[in-house]
C-alpha cells in the first residue's frame, strides 16, 4: 500500500508539473496577443492624432488658412490632404506592421 501511494504521489507530481507548464504556455500566448493588439492601437493612435489636431482647429477661435476666402478651395484642399495622409498612413501601416 505504501508503494502504491508513493507511485501515485510521483504520478500526480508529474501531472501537476505538466499542468503548470501548460498554463505557462497559454499565458505566454495571451501575452503575445495582447502585445499585438496594443501595437496596432498605438499605430492607429499615431495616425489619428495629427488628423485630430488639424480638424480641431475649426472648433477653436484661431486663424485657419483660407478662412477669409469666399471659395471652398482651402477647405477641400485641407480635407483632401487629411484624407491623403490618412490613406497613406493606412497603407504604410498595412504593409509594414500588418495591421489589417
TrEMBL record:
Membrane topology: Multi-pass membrane protein
Keywords: Membrane, Transmembrane, Transmembrane helix
Secretion signal span: none
UniProt cross-references to SUPFAM superfamilies, sorted A to Z: Magnesium transport protein CorA, transmembrane region
Name listed for the protein in its UniProt record: CorA metal ion transporter
Species lineage: Eukaryota, Fungi, Dikarya, Ascomycota, Pezizomycotina
Pfam families named among the record's database cross-references: CorA
Spans through the membrane: 37-60, 72-93
Lineage: superkingdom: Eukaryota
Subcellular localization(s) per the UniProt record: Membrane
Amino acid at each position: 500500500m505504501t508503494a502504491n501511494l508513493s507511485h501515485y504521489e510521483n504520478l500526480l507530481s508529474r501531472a501537476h508539473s505538466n499542468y503548470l507548464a501548460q498554463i505557462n504556455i497559454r499565458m505566454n500566448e495571451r501575452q503575445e496577443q495582447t502585445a499585438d493588439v496594443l501595437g496596432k492601437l498605438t499605430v492607429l493612435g499615431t495616425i489619428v492624432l495629427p488628423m485630430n489636431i488639424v480638424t480641431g482647429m475649426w472648433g477653436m477661435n484661431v486663424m485657419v488658412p483660407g478662412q477669409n476666402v469666399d471659395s471652398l478651395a482651402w477647405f477641400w484642399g485641407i480635407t483632401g490632404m487629411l484624407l491623403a495622409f490618412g490613406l497613406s498612413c493606412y497603407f504604410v501601416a498595412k504593409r509594414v506592421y500588418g495591421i489589417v
